[in-house]
Amino acid sequence: MQDEEFPEDSTDDRAAAGGRDQLPVHANTRAGSALVERGANAGALSTDVRDPDAGQDGDEIDLLSYWHILLKRKWTVLTTLAIIVFTVLIATLVTTPIYRSTATIQIDLEATKVVEVGSTDAAGTGGYGYSADYYQTQYALLRSRSLAKRAGQTLVTQTGTQYLSIGGDSPWSKLSGLLHGRKSSAKATATSAKENVEAMTDVVQGGLVVQPVKDSRLVEISFDSPSAGFAAKAANTIAASFIASNIEHGFDASAYAKKYLEDGLAQLKAKLEDSEKQLVAVAQKEKIFNSTDNQTLSDQSLAQLNASLSGAQATRIVAEARWRQASSASGTELPSDMLGNSIIKSLQARRAELMGQYQDKLTTYKPAYPLMMQLKSQVDEIDKQIRSETGNVKGSARADYQSALAQETLLKQQIDSAKGDVLDLAGRSIQYNVLKREVDTNRQLYDGLLQRYKEVGLAGGVATNNISIVDPAEVPIGPYKPNLPRNLALALLGGLLLGGMLALGFEFLDDTLKTPADIEKQLGLAVLGIIPKLKNMTPTQALEDPRSAFSESYRSVRTALQFSTESGVPRSLLVTSARPAEGKSTSALTLAKNFAQLGKRVLLIDADLRNPTLHKTLGLDNTLGLSNCLAGAAKPQDVIHMPDDSTLHVILSGPIPPNPAELLAGPKMLSLLTVAMAKYDQVIIDGPPTIGLADAPIIAHVAMGTLLVIDAGETRKPIAKGAVKRLLSARARLVGALLTKVDAKSGSYGYGYGDYNYYTYGGDTPKLTRQ
Prior knowledge:
This protein has helices at residues 63-72, 74-94, 131-142, 145-159, 171-180, 193-207, 228-286, 297-328, 336-339, 344-362, 370-428, 430-459, 484-509, 516-522, 539-543, 549-562, 584-597, 614-618, 626-630, 636-639, 660-665, 667-679, 695-702, 717-729; strands spanning 99-107, 208-212, 218-225, 467-471, 527-532, 572-577, 602-606, 640-641, 648-651, 682-686, 705-711, 734-742. The chain is of the alpha/beta class. Helix 8 (297-328) runs antiparallel to helix 11 (370-428) and helix 23 packs across helix 24 (717-729). An 8-stranded mixed β-sheet has the order 5-12-11-6-10-7-9-8, with helices on both faces.
């Protein structure tokens, strides 16, 4: 291409920029980590499009984002809430009212014992060491079918069959019965008494509710029924049946115990008789005789002889001591204890008296005096008597000693003989003792079992009961269920929860880019503008009003582009998108017009050589265009169109070529852009979609900047990421992204960007849709 094709400013310094690497570089800090470094010493290519800040504070919960999601999908939440509330309301209104009557009983671990029967568990606790096991057993018994059958039989007897099908089965009851395997309560077709009882049993089990009172021994027995009177009667009947069953259980246990004890007594009695007969036979054979204290005669005799020997030895020792004292005494001197039993003391006293008289008269008379001689003869006679009596005492002591010694010797001989008899008897009593122990054991067992039998027989006549009715059931005033306020409250709560879960689920399953925050987080690109979605009008119609939000939003994008790089708006700007129909052509045309309104010379190039649309929008002839120029069939000045705005020039796509990628990759495209940037202030390229085509990356490589257009709520995240990666692989300079077709009313898009009606100025502006 020669310079005369663009005669003006052909020698501009920008045209002399021959090297591709000398073009300006975008320095956006938000997307800096995702862009490719340019320069003489360019490093390795990076295609990572993750946000540099992604993953930081990942554990924090953004409640505001969840609130915006709920606002965006408020109709999902409200519809779910309405469906649930309406369903619950209808179900509550059509459900048969159910009345609940409650009887309260008290279950003690042990009943009051009128008769203490050893360790018998009168309460029937079965010896549970932990009361919780016992109470759980009682609760299970209350819910058992046997008790329900007992109560059902009583109710059939008292009320007949009129309550078997009262109220019928509601659809909910039938469904619940099918899910839980319960039979229908409607048994009006039962014909036999047995079938009536079985039907009433099902009714009792279906309406029974057992609720223990926490931290107490009380249990509430409730019964639900369409009939208030029957509910009270059934609850009282179940409580009474449970008490009667408990009492019968005690009687049955006593009867069983009594029968068991009778059998045991008969066996022990026969065994005791046999053992006693064997014991008597052995005693007769061995001639063994026992006294009342279970000792043989030989044992008793030996014991008596040992006792007698001990006494004889003591007597001999005393007698020997007395004899030795008497033998060792000189003259008439004897121990005082021996003198106490004789006349020696009196004789000694008489002698002393006579000796006193003799001494008194000796002072007067001489010893030969007859009176003195008479006194002397009396004293001598007394001395003779004393000596005689002393000899008698000593002889008596010796005789006592010899007698005691002889007795001791005789007893020792008898004991030796008795020991032989005892040893002989012990040898013959071995079998006797074995049988004797067996008899004693059998007698103890028999006596204990007999005592137990008597106690059980006595206690069996006393009705023991550890269960009592605290509050009988009364006829309820109002229905227990359905409870309309409670059901509606639960429906509101459930509807809000389910609606919120559905809204969040739909939102998280939706992998499209919807907000600027999504683009910044997922693609790492700065959002340069947000374009509202139009309703019932075309972009051309919306742009006719310069005060509309649509027009103002593009002016905002124009301003953002002026600050997108250090040198301002890239001289050549490619506008592309990931998919078709995302608004790139409208955005390219509108931006070109906006720059032209600033007085700049703008060249708009339709580089979509596969599906061009600018010629239709502008109403221009597309016979000659870019494809002709790149193919060498036409010069650039021949394909330039000038619409109404004289500062805006347009190069249409031209005829669709068979090889668009080859034409765009040739040197003429770079030459065209180089010369165009020298002649025009701004070159805007309406490029083809990025995904699936090589055209957009080729153009992005030669353009000074690339603007990625994203359709809000339609472009999927993987597709957008793929588009960014392809552009970065082509070393494109991504200046940012443009979010189009944004529904401003959706709460999801309000992340700090405000309501887009703010862009409007008057009341006659076209209305924009916001879904």
